[in-house]
Amino acid sequence: MAKEYLLVDGYNIIFAWEDLRDLADDNLEAARVKLADILCNYQGFKKNEVILVFDGHKFRGNPGSIYHYNNIDIVYTKEAISADQFIETVVQQMGRSYNIRVATSDALEQVIILGKGATRVTARELKAEIRAVEKSIEETYKKKVSNKRNSLIDNLSDEMAELLEKMRLDDSK
Predict the structure, then answer these.
(1) pLDDT per residue over 15-42, tens digit each?
(2) Whole-number Å distance between alpha carbons of 83 and 63
(3) Which residue from 51, 60, 148, 172 has the highest number of Cβ atoms inside 10 Å of its Cβ?
(4) Which residues, by range, are in coiled-coil regions (predicted)?
(5) Number of domains in the chain
């Protein structure tokens, strides 16, 4: 099975999700970090490669940058290259060799990436996937915690547990 990549059009998702859009109205950087953190949790559960792409094309002299953030990669495109163009280039180069999904609600972008071999995920679909992953993580955690007793005696050395048990039995007489 081919390795799976998820390319996320960062600003498109931020402004499509109400909670992130509201946060971006106050602090765009905080919205970018929150989206990155959400995608890190998602990636940790799904074990796919996640690349979060932000437009940097409107900033004169911007050389662009790519850096690793926890378990995902974040790309800020360089001057004159939009996130859409960057995503299209990646899909063109890798589209048939890998399973590539692109998260964007840009209708034109969806048509272009479909033609190059990737599949599309709308902002709404991505949010639903993330909610399902969060629910699975929560259920897994609850099962793990509920199956584990946490009594005092379970956390003592054998010697100390034996001593306390002896004291308990002596007191019951």
Answers:
(1) 999 999 999 999 999 999 999 999 999 9
(2) 14
(3) 51
(4) 123-173
(5) 1
Indicate whether 9 belongs to any domain: yes
| Pairwise CA distance, residues 136 & 142, whole Å | 10
Q: Is 41 exposed, middle or buried (0-12, 13-18, 19+ CB in 10 A)?
A: middle
At 125, which CATH number? 3.40.50
Does the pLDDT at position 173 exceed 60?
no
CA distances in angstroms from 166 to 153, 154, 159, 169, listed in the order given:
13, 16, 11, 5
Helices 28-46 and 123-146 sit at what angle, rounded to 10 degrees?
60
Q: Which residue has the tokens 């690793």?
A: 68
